[in-house]
Specification:
Largest sheet: 2 strands, antiparallel
GO cellular component, one term: cell outer membrane
Shape: globular
Strand order of the largest sheet: 1-5
Structural class: alpha+beta
Helix content: 25-40%
InterPro entries: SusD-like_N (IPR033985), SusD_RagB_dom (IPR012944), TPR-like_helical_dom_sf (IPR011990)
Keywords: Cell outer membrane, Membrane, Signal
Number of helices: 20
Protein name: Starch-binding associating with outer membrane
Subcellular location: Cell outer membrane
Length: 569
């Protein structure tokens, strides 16, 4: 990956496109780029830039968190500023990466680049890199579809333009949006082509060689597809991305379609059965981010390279008393979504005590959220009476607004010292966790046939059961056993997804694809010295009724007459 990173840095010098206008690669002599393996691969590696990781913190625009920075884009969206002119969640610029990989494909299809003097090695390099490029093209189109699909003024469900060729900067970009389903099918077409070209895994084992590479010399195969490339996209990852796409397409706000639920379930279950099915659920998946050992967890389906010691996220998120800025404040709404330790919802009937609110709760609660009285970051964090600078609203834009601070994704062993020095730890980007794939399977199988419908030996009930058991829910899980209908299981799956994937950038999109309210008021909880007091309106959300579908950037619809805007924008 050192060479990969080198080429990424080289090519970043040449970035400069606005919206979907590509850089004019004629600045680099085409004959040179089209003949030099390193320069050409730099184009491909641009497709790896912009892959979305877990550190987006879009939860500040949902019912899960409030961002205490007044200028934060997600906060401004949640307060009513989302428009076709202002959309911090826009992904229209992802087309920039599409044009990079399209130019790479144009070059590689000419067949003039020699990756090696050996004919077999050269052929395999071309095959594998073409697979990477096609898969990355599909992925970046998916990002755009997720952010910009929607209904037009007539109620037609539209997708995005789909670009399969390189267009020069002075070319014609005035391309209409496909229908939503046609967009999905184009992405699937690219994913399926990639599956015929990519190895399932980059591996040192000859037994892992896929049939489409079986005729090649194994020693030469290792040069091209050995584990030195293991952070690049693979067939396994593409299957997981297909499952994610299919679940998105099948969702109520889009196609609400059994065909795509089946596709999601089949792809997810096929991959999960290669790791042992339910028994393959990583035992350390709840806290996949907390230590150097966790970096190599079997929870990782696709991750980025491991960075050096750093403390940037902790400086943003730690409470003020341990020298952080307390930026993301989880809501009491989210806190109450964590069940009791016995798995039942946190209600008075089930033993919840609003004056001892964190007792006998799901163990994930204290792992993900800094609660009043918790030890964290080298100090004791009191957010209520007597809490000093950690107390709710004691320091505008630094202290909590809800009574909670964020713990998930942060390294608890980072220290931010009073003199400004830090003791950092290693972090890494996560692109896809196996837990997400299990949750995709659970949601899809339940929508197909209810709690006990099985696909390749797994059902929603036993998947959710395994996830809750790993979380520390008391066994036997009598609440799960009491669920009999698809509707009840749907609610539980959505709640488990909310908890397990919290603060990883999913909630913002899940609410939209499920068609749920975006305007749940953010609530807080405060200890006044004698009692805990609910704060029913920390931040009022103000989304338009049509904000389930986000806008195409106004600048694009003005430039390109073929682009149809989503309804209301």
């Amino acid at each position: 990956m050192k060479n990969s990173i080198k080429y990424i840095l080289i090519m970043l010098v040449f970035t400069g496109m606005i919206a979907c206008d590509p850089i004019d690669e004629n600045r680099l002599d085409f004959d040179y780029v089209g003949s030099d393996p390193g320069a050409a691969e730099g184009l491909l590696l641009q497709g790896y830039s912009g892959i979305i990781d877990q550190f987006v913190f879009s939860e500040g625009a949902t019912d899960d968190a409030v961002n205490n920075q007044l200028t934060n884009g997600y906060k401004r969206m949640a307060l009513g500023e989302l428009s076709a002119q202002y959309n911090p969640a826009s992904r229209w610029n992802t087309f920039e990466r599409v044009f990079y990989v399209n130019q790479f494909l144009e070059i590689i299809n000419l067949g003039e680049i020699q990756w090696s003097r050996d004919e077999e090695i050269n052929e395999m390099f071309k095959m594998r890199m073409k697979g990477e490029a096609v898969a990355l093209r599909a992925l970046h189109h998916f990002y755009a579809l997720q952010a910009h699909a929607g209904e037009d003024a007539s109620g037609n469900l539209l997708g995005i333009p789909y670009f399969t060729e390189f267009i020069k900067s002075d070319g014609d970009f005035n391309t209409p949006r496909l229908s939503f389903e046609a967009s999905v099918q184009e992405i699937l077409k690219d994913f399926d082509e990639a599956l015929t070209l990519l190895p399932t895994d980059y591996s040192l084992s000859e037994g892992d060689v896929d049939p489409w590479y079986a005729s090649y010399d194994y020693g030469k195969y290792q040069v091209v597809n050995g584990n030195a490339y293991e952070l690049r996209i693979t067939g396994r990852i593409v299957r997981a991305l297909k499952a994610r796409l299919a679940l998105f397409a099948a969702s109520p706000s889009f196609l609400n379609d059994q065909f795509y639920y089946n596709m999601a379930a089949e792809n997810a279950s096929d991959i999960l059965n290669t790791i042992g099915g339910i028994s393959g659920l990583a035992p350390d998946g709840v806290e996949f981010y907390t230590s150097d050992d966790a970096i190599n967890s079997s929870e990782m389906l696709w991750r980025g390279s491991i960075g050096g010691n750093s403390s940037g996220y902790e400086e943003r998120m730690f409470p003020p008393s341990v020298n952080g800025k307390g930026e993301i404040n989880p809501t009491h709404n989210l806190v109450m979504a964590f069940p009791m330790k016995n798995g039942y919802p946190a209600t008075a009937t089930n033993g919840f005590d609003n004056q001892n609110p964190y007792a006998n709760r799901d163990p994930r609660l204290e792992k993900y959220i800094v609660l009043n009285g918790a030890s964290y970051g080298g100090g004791t964090i009191n957010t209520g009476f007597g809490g000093g600078i950690d107390r709710l609203d004691s320091i505008p834009q630094f202290s909590t607004t809800t009574g909670y601070y964020l713990k998930k994704l942060l390294r608890p062993d980072v220290r931010i010292n009073n003199d400004g020095t830090t003791s950092g730890q290693r972090h890494f980007d996560v692109y896809f966790r196996y837990t997400e794939l299990f949750l995709i399977l659970a949601e899809a199988t339940n929508e197909i046939g209810g709690p006990d419908h099985q696909v390749n030996g797994m059902s929603a009930r036993n998947v959710i059961g395994a996830i809750r058991q790993r979380a520390g829910i008391t066994q036997p899980d009598t609440y799960l056993a009491s669920i009999t209908s698809a509707e009840e299981m749907r609610d539980l799956i959505r709640n488990e997804r909310r908890l397990e994937l919290s603060f990883e950038g999913h909630r913002f999109w899940d609410l939209r694809r499920w068609g749920l309210s975006l305007n749940e008021t953010a609530e807080g909880y405060f200890y006044d010295g004698d009692n805990y007091v609910e704060l029913p309106s920390v931040e009022t959300r103000n989304y338009q009724s049509f904000a389930t579908y986000m806008p195409i950037p106004n600048s694009e619809t003005l430039k390109f007459t073929e682009l149809t805007q989503n309804k209301g924008w």
